[in-house]
Design a protein that fits this description.
It is a single chain. This protein has 5 helices and no strands. It has 165 residues and is mainly α. The longest helix is centred in the middle third of the chain and has 30 residues. It is elongated. It starts with a helix and ends with a helix.
């Protein structure tokens, strides 16, 4: 495995940890009820304990995979800076809140929808537009977490460019 791939994996993990700390911290402080790892885990199991464990594993792998997408973006436009990473993270967060999360009830096996209420199999509350059903501060904490993710990856790229070029 090449050194740059190892660095990418390391910084992808660091960015994922930073983002997750913000998102889960805001949940723990009562700013939001959104837990993306829990929502991911409940795709695969209805058992709460295993949903959290499974969700965190999938979420961490997803953070690594998105790091590759961010690095491809940096490479494609030739901008390797923390601010461009932050901008990419902000756009990613806006897409997540405006488009991806509102579609979740259509594909999630355990989530109620805006059109059909809860049932014995669909007990999770749908996020709604901007994930506001999970709290009024959810959009802010989500955008902050996604932006920090991008800033971390962009900052790594900026540092790497300064050291090796």
């Amino acid at each position: 495995m090449s050194g740059s791939l190892l660095h990418l994996m390391l910084w992808g993990l660091i960015a994922t940890v930073a983002m997750t700390s913000i998102l889960e911290g805001s949940r723990g402080l009562g700013f939001s009820r959104l837990s993306l790892p829990f929502l991911l885990g409940t795709f695969f199991t209805g058992q709460r304990r295993w949903a959290v464990i499974t969700g965190f594993a999938i979420y961490t792998i997803g953070g690594w995979l998105f790091a590759f997408v961010y690095f491809w973006l940096f490479e494609s436009v030739g901008i390797f800076t923390w601010w461009f990473g932050g901008l990419a993270g902000l756009v990613h967060g806006i897409f997540l809140l405006v488009a991806a999360l509102p579609l979740l009830p259509l594909v999630h096996p355990h989530m109620a929808s805006e059109y059909h209420g809860a049932s014995t199999t669909r007990q999770l509350e749908p996020p709604g537009f901007l994930a506001m059903n999970y709290g009024y501060h959810t959009p802010l904490s989500t955008l902050l977490g996604q932006t920090v993710y991008g800033v971390t990856l962009g900052g790594f790229m900026q540092l790497q460019q300064a050291m090796f070029h």
